[in-house]
Amino acid sequence: MFLKLAWLNIWRNKRRTLITTASVFFAVLLAIATRSMTNGIYENMIHNVVSYSSGYIQIHKKGFWDEQSIDNTFEENKQLSKSLLENSNIGHLMPRLETFALASFSDKTKGVLILGIDPEKEKEALFKLKNTLESEIKRSESLLNNPSFTAKAPEQKLQLEKEKYESYQKQYEIVLDKLKSYA
What we know:
Elements: H1 2-10, H2 14-52, H3 78-85, E1 96-105, E2 108-117, H4 119-144, H5 147-152, H6 155-182
Antiparallel strand pairs: 1-2
């Protein structure tokens, strides 16, 4: 009885009901689109930071997070490296030493990041990334230069592939610049 009364009351003013329904529908649609876009941007930011910095896994000496000091570092362990590389999910290892210090000149003092790397391993990782990017660029170019693909693919797919191609090109240029510094 109450449901029937509510239903009749809703449709008493059809224009108001349709406007309200359309407003709610578009608000939910925009909320979903915005949420999807922010999730994609967030995942992309994480990937960019991780791929150009420390990677997805960091190994620290026990107690490092309690007191992040250079005294809490450990030397590279070949046996640990070997056992980690046996895991198929790990592509490569790069030992790094990161610490902060104060640098001063004249009357100014600033905090600085000190990053110690193994140049040979960094160079090796950059070559792997360079090869991966080259193959992705070739794949994208072959798709974008394929008249069959460009004629049949939806506009969104075509635009996405163009964006990927541009992103790969930018990443490739960054990798080449980094490799020049090791020459």
